[in-house]
Amino acid sequence: MAKEFIMGNEAIALGAMAAGVKVVAGYPGTPSTEVLETIAKRNDGSIYVEWSVNEKAGLEVAAGAAYAGARSLVTMKQVGLNVASDPLMCLEYIGIKGGMVVMVADDPGPISSQTEQDTRTQAFFSKLPLFDPSTVQEAYEMMIEAFDFSEKYGTPVFFRSTTRVCHGYASIDVKEPSEYHKYEVEGFVKDSSKWVIFPRLSLQNHKKIVERNIQLSDIFSEYERNFIISENDKNCRKGIATHSISYCYAMENLDESNMLRTFRVATPHPFPEKKALEFLEGLDEVLCIEELDPVIEKELIFICGKYNLKTKILGKMSGNIKVAGENTVESVGEAINVFLGKESEKATENDAPALPVRPPVLCAGCPHRASFYAVKEAMKGKKTLYCGDIGCYTLGNAKPLDMVDTCLCMGAGINIAQGIGHLEPDTSCFAFVGDSTFFASGITGVINAFYNQSNMTLIVLDNSTTAMTGHQPHPGTGKTMMGEIVSKVSIENVLRAIGLETVVTVDPLKLGEAISTVKEVSSKSGVKAIIFKSPCVAIIKPTGKNIIDSEKCTNCKSCIKKLGCPAIVLKDGKVAIDETLCTGCGICGEVCPFGAIGGGEGNE
Question: Comparing C-alpha atoms, which of 38, 102, 23, 62 is closest to residue 470?
C-alpha cells in the first residue's frame, strides 16, 4: 500500500484501476471529469480510454467490453445519465459478464448543472444496485467493491458521488500497481438467448431482477459500510439516518454530549431493510439528513408502515431538511439542534462576511463574445429568437449581450428553434451550439430540421475544444484520449452531407466580415449554417494587448455597454483596460465609435 494526497475523483479512478478495469469511456461533465482524465494520465497502456461523443455511446462501449468479460467503467454527471438511460434500462435486463460500473457524479446546488437530480432515485427506477460513498478514502475502496459486486451478480452497478466527495482532497491509502486485480479476459461468447434482447427474455429477466433485489436487500444489510453508531445514552429515543457527505456533516455536529443512534446508508438501493429495522428498534423519532431526494426518508416510512412501527420519520417531506440545494455543516447542525429541541447558535461578530456575488462571465478574449455580438448587430431591429445550449456560450445570456432566449439541455436549442419557428414564421430563428455539443447531440437536430423543412439559422461556435469542462478532445480536434492523432471530423462536411446548401465558415474576430455573413446567410430560406471558428483563448497564447488613446476616448463607455468584457474596466471613473486580462482580440476597438482603442497586434 502507498499513501497519496489526492482528489476524490482521482481516488475513484485509482480504485477502478486497482479493480482491474480494462475499458473506460465517458463524456466530460463537471464534477465527474477528472475520473477518466486520471486514468488516462496514469495509464500504462493496458487500459483503453476514450472520450465518447456522448454518454449513450460511452455506456454502450463499456457494455460491449463487459459482454466480453472485461471490467469496464463509464463516467458522466447526473444530466449525462439522462442521455445514457436508454441503453442502461435495457442493459439491466440483459446483464453483463465482466464487472461494469456506471460512475455518476451528482451536483447538489446545482453548482455547474441544469438540474439537481438524484441518481439514487434513478437506481430505484432502473432497478440497479447503487454505491454511495461518504469520503475520499471510502470512494477508493467502494469502487473496488463495486466491481467485485457487479461481476459476482452479473449486473451493472451505479457508483454515485457528489461534488463535495468528487472534489474533496484527502491523504488516503492506495494499492501499488503490483497489487492491482489481474485476470484474463475470456472474450465474447456468442449466445443469442442471452445477449439479444427480446420481449420473452425481458419478461423472464424482469422476474429474476425483482427476486435478486430482494436478496440483495438482505446482503446489503450485512454490508459493512451500512452501519449503525449507537448513542451513549441508552435511553435516547432519537436517531439520525444519513448518507454520503451528509454523514460527515452530521458527525461534525455530534459528539459525546449529544451522540444519537446514527444509521449510515451506503447502498440506498436495494435498501438494507434488515439493518434499518435494527436501527429503528426503540426509537420514537428519526431525522433523515440527505441530498437531494427524500430517498432514505421514504424507505424508512415504508418500513415503519410495513412492520407497524410507531417511529416518526422526519426529513425533507416534513420540512425539517431543506428540499433543494447542498447540505452544509452549518445547515445540518441547525437541523440537528432543532430536532433535539436546542436553540440554534447565532452568528457572532467574528464570523467572516458573506462572499461577494460573482456571476460567471465569458473570458476576456473569448471568441463567443464576438460571435454573439456579430449576430446581434446583424439582426438589429428584426424579430429574432436566439436558442442557446449547454457550454461556455450559455453565458451569452448575461447583459449586455443578452443573446440566449432559451436553454434546456445539450442539443435542445436546435429543435426548440424549429418548434417555435413553425408557429412564428415571421421570426428569424437562430440556434447556437458548440463544436463538442454538435457531435454529442446536435447532429440529429439538424437532420430533423432539414428533413422537416424548417426555416432557421444554425450557429456553430467552434473553438476547437470542449472548453467548459476542461478542454477535452472531441471528434473535431483530431486527437483521441489515447493520444492518437486521427483525421478530424469536419463539421462543415457533416452539414453538407445532411443536405445543407449554405454552410459558411468565418472568424468571429473579423467582426465586419462576421456581421455581413450573418446578414447574408440569415436572409436565405430553409436550414442554413454559419460556423464561427476561432480557438478558445485558454488554449492559445495571445501576445497582444489593446490600449486606449486617452485623447480620442470620450468615456462614452460604448465598449463596456456593448461587450461586457471583463478586461474593460472603470478606473477613477474612466474606461481602462486591465492588461492582466486583455488578450488583444481587438473586438473592443471595432465597436468603439471614436477609434480610441487600438493595439492587439501580434496575437498568435
Answer: 38
Among the listed residues 578, 82, 136, the one whose alpha carbon sits nearest the alpha carbon of residue 365: 578
* Domains 2-197 and 227-339 alike in fold: yes
Q: Residues 252, 120: contact at Cβ < 8 Å?
A: no
What is residue 543's predicted lDDT score, i.e. its pLDDT? Answer: 74
Q: How many CA atoms lie within 13 A of 552 on its CB side?
A: 11
The set of cell numbers assigned to 516 is 455581413
d(CA 232, CA 256): 7
Tens-place pLDDT, residues 237-255: 999 999 999 999 999 998 8
Query: Residue 350: what pLDDT?
Result: 57
Dist. CA 582–CA 566, nearest whole Å:
8
pLDDT band at 356 (very low <50, low <70, confident <90, very high): confident
Helices (H) and strands (E) in the chain, counts: 21, 22
b/e code 85-122 from CB counts within 10 Å (16+ = b): bebbeebbbbbbbbbbbbbbbbbbbbeebbebbbbbbb
Residue 540 has a pLDDT of: 85
- The pLDDT of residue 359 is above 90: no
| CATH level 3 topology of 227-339 | Rossmann fold (3.40.50)
- Return the bridge partners of 313, or none: 286
pLDDT of residue 360: 84
Closest CA relative to residue 287, chosen from 314, 269, 312, 252: 314
The domain locations on the chain are 2-197, 227-339, 367-533, 546-599
Q: What pLDDT, in 10s, does the model give residues 291-334? A: 999 999 999 999 999 999 999 999 999 999 999 999 999 999 99
What confidence category does residue 374 fall into, taking pLDDT thresholds of 50, 70 and 90? very high
The x, y and z cell numbers of residue 233, run together, are: 445514552
CATH 3.40.50.1820 describes domain 546-599:
no
Name the DSSP letter for residue 363.
Answer: P
Distances from the Cα of 422 to the Cα of 425, 519, 529, angstroms: 6, 21, 18
Element of type H or E holding 144: helix 136-153
| Residue 604's pLDDT band (cuts 50, 70, 90) | very low
DSSP 562-602: HH--TTEEEETTEEEE-TTT-----HHHHH-TT--EEE-TT
* Rounded mean pLDDT, 194-202: 89
pLDDT digit string (tens) for 2-44? 999 999 999 999 999 999 999 999 999 999 999 999 999 999 9
Give long-range contacts, CB 8 A cutoff, 24+ apart: 176-180: 176/1, 176/2, 177/17, 177/44, 179/1, 179/18, 180/17, 180/18, 180/19, 180/20
Contacts of 128 (CB under 8 A, 6+ apart): 88, 92, 102, 155, 156, 157, 158, 269
Burial 460-474 (b: 16+ CB within 10 A, else e): bbbbbbbbbbeebbb
Spell out the CATH class of 367-533. Answer: alpha beta
Half-sphere exposure of 274 (CA within 13 A, CB side): 10
pTM for the full predicted model? 0.88
Q: Give residue 480's pLDDT.
A: 87
Query: Does 2-197 carry CATH code 3.40.1400.10?
Result: no
Q: Do 431 and 463 touch, CB atoms closer than 8 A?
A: no
- SS3 assignment, position 405: coil
pLDDT of residue 234: 57
Residue 311, SS3 per DSSP: coil
